[in-house]
Write a structure and sequence with these properties.
The protein is α/β, with parallel strands linked by helices. It contains eight helices and twelve strands. The strands form three sheets. Strands 1, 4, 5, 6, 7, 10, 11 and 12 form an eight-stranded mixed sheet that branches. β2 and β3 form a beta hairpin. α6 packs across α7. The longest helix is centred in the C-terminal third of the chain and has 18 residues. Bound molecules: cytidine-5'-triphosphate and ligand LQXTBERG. Keywords: Isoprene biosynthesis, Nucleotidyltransferase, Transferase. Belongs to the IspD/TarI cytidylyltransferase family. IspD subfamily. Its EC number is 2.7.7.60.
């Protein structure tokens, strides 16, 4: 029935999903941690594209409250906006949501309540890990075998336009192993010596040429094998580990950029919520959603 979360029937996909949940043991319970909606896409196509949405963060920088992805934006949980944004893309036939550890059941209920009209995209929920990269790795592990293009998208970027999602997916499908949406940097950026003394002014060591800098967003798109290899081989902490493309770069694989979008900004601090509410209100007034 459209709009009802269903268990995946026993199939090769089912086997992949259940196998994938076990590495961390962090799912609420193996029998109940993976839920899906009926899919519409052509899984036999040459490039089945799935989105992994890490949504397991606490949102410490946003301040006290529920996990960030579950906080309301325009009266609807941020995660729901993010899932809708990815599910609206024609390229995406499966969305894997990586929810806060121990809260997968709540996430499933929440998506069930809000995604009734999205009867065309399969949505799976698994539990996340202690870090963003742990959560992404658990999301990748939950992908069925026929997926060969993966978009990794922060739940914390709920307002990404569908055109940005499509552009990233199209570039991977056209042959790029790793694709990142990006914008020019508007502030001048200073490099400092890390690990300075607390309370002391930080000395600046360099001012990188701003014209050569880009601020990168999500969704970041990958050939599945490249993304999987990066998460297997590259240390998930330290230099280059704050985004998935950085890990792919460490493999020596080329990463290319497509234009990002201002509205794909990351909700990190309280002022970002003010902006997100304003963008959403404008969209609802002009586009009706
Ligand atoms: N253990 C974690 C940490 C983060 N994320 C996800 O990664 C994305 C980007 O992370 P960020 O914006 O830093 O979110 P939080 O970690 O929640 O924020 P904070 O660092 O302020 O706590 C978010 O969608 C977040 O839910 C995740 O899935 N698992
Ligand atoms: C992946 C990312 O959104 C790209 O800009 C960013 O690196 C995530 O950083 P965070 O500190 O985990 O929010």
């Amino acid at each position: 029935m459209p709009g009802t979360l269903l268990a995946i029937p026993m199939s090769s996909k089912d086997t992949n999903l259940n196998t994938a949940m076990s590495p961390s043991g962090s799912s609420d319970s193996p029998a109940a941690s993976v839920e899906t909606r009926p899919g519409h896409s052509d899984p036999s196509g040459p490039h089945r594209c799935a989105a992994v949405i890490p949504a397991a963060g606490r949102g410490v920088r946003l301040g006290p409250g529920a996990p960030k992805a579950l906080r309301a934006l325009g009266g609807t949980p941020m995660l729901v906006h993010a899932v809708r944004a990815l599910a609206r893309a024609r390229a995406v036939s499966l969305v894997v949501v990586v929810g806060p550890p121990g809260e997968a059941a709540q996430v499933r209920t929440l998506l069930d309540d809000h995604l009734d009209h999205l009867d065309s995209t399969e949505v799976v929920v698994v539990s996340g890990g202690d870090t963003r990269q742990d959560s992404v790795r658990l999301g990748i592990a939950a992908l069925p075998g026929d997926v060969d293009v993966v978009l990794v998208h922060d739940a914390a970027r709920p307002l990404v336009p569908v055109d940005t999602v499509e552009a990233v997916a199209a570039a991977v499908r056209a042959g790029a192993p790793a694709v990142v949406p990006a914008l020019p940097v508007t502030d001048t950026v200073k490099q400092v010596e890390p690990g300075g003394e607390p309370g002391r002014p930080e000395p600046v060591v360099a001012t990188p040429e701003r014209a050569a800098l880009r601020a990168v967003q999500t969704p970041q798109g990958f050939d599945r094998r490249v993304l999987t290899e990066a998460h297997e081989k590259v240390p998930a902490a330290g230099e280059g580990a704050t985004d998935d493309a950085g890990m792919v770069e460490r493999l020596g694989v080329e990463v290319v950029l497509v234009p990002g979008h201002e509205e794909a900004f990351k909700v990190t601090r309280p002022l970002d919520m003010v902006l997100a509410e304003a963008v959403l209100a404008r969209r609802r007034a002009t586009d009706g959603f």
